[in-house]
Prior knowledge:
The complex is a heterodimer. By secondary structure, chain A is of the alpha/beta class. Helix content of chain A is 42%, strand content 14%. Chain A is built from 11 helices and 9 strands. The radius of gyration of chain A is 16 Å and the shape is globular. Chain A starts with 23 loop residues before the first strand and ends with a helix. Chain B is an alpha/beta fold. Chain B folds into 2 domains: 5-46 and 85-195, Rossmann fold, CATH 3.40.50; 52-82 and 204-390, Rossmann fold (3-Layer(aba) Sandwich). Chain B is 46% helix and 18% strand. Chain B contains 15 helices and 14 strands. In chain B, the strands form 4 sheets. Chain B has a 6-stranded mixed sheet with strand order 3-4-14-9-10-13, with helices on both faces. Chain B has a 4-stranded parallel sheet with strand order 7-6-5-8, with helices on both faces. In chain B, β11 (273-277) and β12 (280-284) form a beta hairpin. The longest helix of chain B is centred in the middle third of the chain and has 24 residues, at 195-218. The chains are: A alpha/beta, B alpha/beta. Pyridoxal-5'-phosphate is lined by residues 83, 109-110, 112-113, 188, 228-235, 301-302, 346, 348-349, 374-375 of chain B.
Amino acid sequence: MTITNGTTGRLGRSGARLRGDGVSVVPYLMAGHTGLDTTRELGKRLVNAGVGALELGIPHNDPLADGPVIQRAAQRAVDAGVTLAGCLEVARDVADEGAAPVVLMTYVNPVLAYGVERFARDAAECGVSGVIAPDLPVEEAAATGSVLRAHGVDLVMLVAPTSSPERVAAACAASSGFVYCVTVTGITGTRTDLPAGVRSVLSTVRANTALPVAAGFGISRPDHIRDLAGHADAAVVGSALVDLVDRGQDPTPLVKELVTACD
Amino acid sequence: MIESRFGRFGGRYVPETLMAALDELDAVWSVAREDPEYWLVLHGHQDGFVGRPTPLYFAERLTEHHGGARIHFKREDLCHTGAHKLNNALGQALLAIRMGKRRIIAETGAGQHGVATATVCARFGLPCVVYMGAEDARRQEVNVRRMRMLGAEVRPVDSGSATLKDATSEAIRDWVTNVGDTHYVIGSAVGPAPYPALVRDLQRVIGDEAREQYLSAERTLPDAVVACVGGGSNAIGMFSAFVGDTDVDLIGVEAGGRGVSGVEHAAATVAGTAGVLHGSMSRILQDGAGLVRATHSVAAGLDYPGVGPEHAMLAETERARYVAVDDADAIAAFRRCTALEGIMPALETAHALHHVGDLARELGPGGRVLVCFSGRGDKDMHSVAEYEEAHR
Ligand SMILES: Cc1ncc(COP(=O)(O)O)c(C=O)c1O
C-alpha cells in the first residue's frame, strides 16, 4: 500500500468517502457538455445526492478510451470552446459545496499543454482531490504523479482485465486516493450485463492494495451496483448519465436510484 | 531490447487495457527479429509476392531539367499494390500469425496501407477490418473498392474530421475492445512502443537495398537522401540505413498544404510542438489547449497531425532536417515527373520530388540526390483532377 505525502484536497483524499457499507456511486459528467453553467448546476445537485465523489471529464478531441456517447459529449464541449481553465472553475464551485470530493478525468495532452505544474497548482487551489488519466499507464505516470501529489492531489491509476498480476501490483503501488478498476476489455459505454470476470479482477486488485477500489466502464443500472456489493467500494457511472444530459434530461433521478440500490 | 523512447519522444500513452498486448508484441518482435527463420519466410514473400528488391532508377530527364545534379529514385512504387506500405503489412501479418492472433485491423488514410493490409490478409486467409475516415473514403474511392474486393471490411469513420487521425483512434478503440484475438497493423512509424521501432525495422529494407544499389551503381554515396513524411515510415526506412553516414544529408518532406504560415497544412515536424497523440510523445499539430488540430493536404497519406517519434528526435538532434512543400508545388511536381520520366508518382511522393528539384538546383552538376519514390500515382487521378478543377 502506498501512503501519499503532502496535504490533501479540500475534502480530503479522493477516496475518503468511498468506503462504508454498500457501494458508493461516483457519477461522471463531461465538463461543458451542454455548457459550463449546466455542468456546474448538475454537479452541485449530484454531490448533494449522496454520492461518494464526482468525476468531471475534461473534454479532448481525441478521446481514445471513450465510446460514442462520451466522444460526442467531448466534441460538443470542444466545439463550444470549453477550456481547461473553465472546467477548473466549475470544479471549484462543485467542491465548494463541501459535499463530496471532485476528481478530474483527463487525457494527458490537455494537461501537458496547460503545464503539469500549473495544472497541479490550480487543481489543488480549486479543491480538486484527484485526477484520473486514462492514457497514463504506470510507465508514464511517475513524473506527473509526483507533481500532483506534491500539491496534495491524487493520481488514481487504472487496472484492466488484461493487466498481468505484475501490472496490477505496480498500478496499485503507484496509485493514491483509490484504484480504478476497468470492468470491461473495451471503451466506455453502457452494457446490459457486467462481464463475468469482473469479480475476479476486483479481488486481485483488493489483494494488492488497502486503498478503496472503484469499478467503472459499462455500469448503468441498479442491478449492476448490487452485483458489485462486497467486491468494489465504489462504482463509476458515466455514459448512462452523459446520454441523459445529451438529450437535455436531468440525470439526478437515475443517480438517486443507483445510490439507493443497495439499501 | 526494442527502443521505447527516442530521446524524449516515444513511450506508451495508451489505456492500461492495451499494455499487455504491447508487452506481448515487444516480446514477440524481440525474438522474431533475431530469428533467421522469420527473415527467411519474410524474404521468400518479398521475392515472389512483393517484388523485392525494387530497382534503383536514374531519373535522367529530371536530372537534366533540374540542372545536372544526379537524381535517383528508389522505386517503392513497383512494390505489389503500388507503395512501400506492403513491406510493413507483410512483416506484421507474419508476426500476428506467430502470436496466434487471427483477426487483423488497420487504419488507412490514402487507402494504400489499407490495401496493403487487405492484400496480405487475403494471402494468409485472415479476416481484416480497415478503418477509414469518411472524407478519405470519398477521396480514395478506388482504394475502398480494392479493399472490399480483397475481402476486407471497410468501416468509414465519421467522427472528428473524418480523416486519418479519426480512423487511427477508431482502430485503437477496436483494439482495446478485441485485444485478445486481434492484432493491430499500424500503418506508419507512429503509435505506442514498440510500433515505431517495429515499423522502422520492417521498412528498413528500403534503405538497406537502396544504399547497396547506390554504392554499386555510383561507387559513392549520395549527398542527400529525401523522403516524404506522413507518419514517417518510408522516410525512416530509408534514413535508418544512412544515419551512420554522417556526410549524407537526410531530408524529410512534409505536407505544407495551403501554407505552413496558416493552419491548413500537415507539417507536424516543421510547425508542430511536443505533445501526445495516438500513444506516443512526438511533435504534433495542436492548439494552445492541447486539442489536436485539423490538418489539410492534397495528399491523403500525408494528412496527419503527428509524426513518428524517431523523426521528432532526428529533428531535435539535427541529424535530419524537415521541410514543407505545399499543395500547388506537389501537383506541379506530379505533372513534371509524369511528363519527363513516364513515371506517375503518388501525390505523397510528389512532395518529396518537388524538394528534390530545389535541392538539385542548389547542388548543381556533380550533386547527387536519392529520393524514396514511395508510391505510384494512379490512385490520385481523381485528386489531381479535383485540384486542377478548383484552381483553374
Ligand atoms: C505512397 C505513399 N507515400 C507516403 C505515405 C506516407 O506515409 P509514411 O510517412 O508512413 O511513409 C503514404 C501513406 O499513405 C503513401 O501512400
